[in-house]
Amino acid sequence: MKMKDAAEVLERRTVLDRDVFTRPPADFGQEDPAPPGDDLVEASLFDLIDAFRRVVGRAPADSGLKINIETKTMGQRVAEIVAHLKRRRQAAFTLLCRDDRTRMDLVLSFLAVLELARVGRLKLYQHTATGELTLFYVERADPEEPEPDWERQFGDASG
Amino acid sequence: MNLGLKQIIEGLLFVSNEPLTPKKIMEITENASLDRVQRVLDELENEYEELGRAFVLKRVAGGYQFRTRPELSAYILQLKKKSPTRLSRAALETLAIIAYRQPVMRAEIEKIRGVDVGGIVKTLLEKGLIRGAGRKDLPGRPIIYGTTKKFLETFDLPSLDALPSVEEMESLGPDDEGRLF
After folding, report:
1. Shortest CA distance to B8 belongs to which of A30, A29, B54, B24?
2. Which residues of chain B from 119 to 158 reach within 8 Å of chain A, CB to CB?
3. Other C-beta atoms within 10 Å of B18: how many?
4. Residue A48 and residue B179: Cα distance in Å, rounded?
5. Do the Cβ atoms of B142 and B107 come closer than 8 Å?
C-alpha cells in the first residue's frame, strides 16, 4: 500500500468545511467563531493586549470600584480556562471574559490566557474582519504527562 | 402539538454542535431503548436522503449529524466568505500514515516519508486531528500518535473501519515508493 494513495483517499473524501458543512456551534447564546481558516490569522501578544483593552473599555464604569471578596486565584482561573477549552476546543476572548465582574477578574483572565499561550496550551488567532481574538486549545503531545496542578502553581499569586 | 420520539430526536440533532450518539440520545429521552433510538435514527437517515433536501443526516464519528450536501459547497463557501479547509500534501501523507498505522511513533512516520515530520505533527496536533496516544516501551519512551474524533468528523467517517482496507488500497496499483505496509 502506498503512502501517496492513502493520502489521496483522505483528499478525495467529502471534507468538513470544504465539501460539507454543519450548523454553526449552537450553545444557547455562547456561540464561538469558526475554527482556524483563511479568515483567521495568528495573533501576537500585542493583539492580546489590544483585545484586553477593548474588554476593559467595555466593562461598566463602576466595576473597578467594587471590592470582590470572592476573587479567584490565578491558578483557579487558569484551570477554568483549560477546562473550558478542553470541552469546547476554542473560545472567543470576549466571551471568556463575559462573566468577569471586576477589573481584577479581567486582569486575571488576561494573565491566565497569557500564561497558557506561553506554555503552549493554547494558540491565539485573530479574525481578519472583526479583530475578534479566539483561543484554540492545543492537545498535550504527551498524554501521560499529568495535568499541572494549576491552583498549586499559581495559588498564592493573586488570592 | 403532541411530539413523538422522532421529532424529539430530530430536534436534538438540529441543535447539537457535534455528532450525537444513540447512547446520548437514549440518556436524554430516558424512556426509549437503544434499539428504538437506533431505529428512529435509521428512519430519519433514510427520510432525509429520500427527501432530496439540502442537508442529510450522516453517520459521523460514532454519532449522527446533519450535514449539507457536497453539491452545495461552492454556494456555502461564498456565504461564509472563506476558503475551504485544506491540508498540504505533506500533512495529508503524514495523517494517512498515522490513520493506517496507529499507534505510530514519529520515527516510524519519518522512515516511511523519508523526511522530518516534527513541524507537521505539531500542526496536526494543533488542529486536533491527531493526539498523543501513549508512549512506546522503548529506550527514551517515544510518544505514539493516533487519530482523534475530530479526524473522523473532518473526513466524514463513521469510524476508522470506514477507511478503505489495505487490500482495497493494493488494487490501486504497484509502486514500492513510500510503502505503508
Report:
1. B24
2. 122, 125-128, 131-135, 143, 148, 150, 153-157
3. 16
4. 45
5. yes
Please state the length of chain B: 181
CB A95 within 8 A of CB A143: no
| pTM, to two decimals | 0.62
- Say what the pLDDT of residue B17 is: 81
Instruction: Identify all chain A residues contacting B80, using CB atoms and an 8 Å cutoff.
Output: 21, 34
Distance CA A39, CA A33 (A): 11
A23 vs B: CB within 8 A: yes
| SS3 track for chain A | CEHHHHHHHHHHCCCECCCECCCCCCCCCCCCCCCCCCCEEECCHHHHHHHHHHHHHHCCHHHHHCCCCCCCCHHHHHHHHHHHHHHHCEEEHHHHCCCCCCHHHHHHHHHHHHHHHHCCCEEEEEECCCCCEEEEECCCCCCCCCCCCHHHHHHHHHC
CA distances from B107 to A138, B112, B130, B132 (A): 22, 9, 16, 14
> How many angstroms separate the Cα of A148 from the Cα of each of A27, A79, A115, B16, B166?
28, 9, 13, 31, 41
Classify B62 as helix, strand or coil.
Answer: coil
Q: Under a CB-based contact definition with an 8 Å cutoff, are residues B67 and B58 in contact?
A: yes
Residues of A in contact with B122 (CB under 8 A): 141
Which residue is it, cell 493520502? A7
pLDDT of residue A100: 80
Tens digits of per-residue pLDDT, B3-54? 799 999 999 999 888 899 999 999 999 888 999 999 999 999 999 999 999 9
Name the β-bridge partners of A157. Answer: none
- 3 state DSSP class of B87: coil
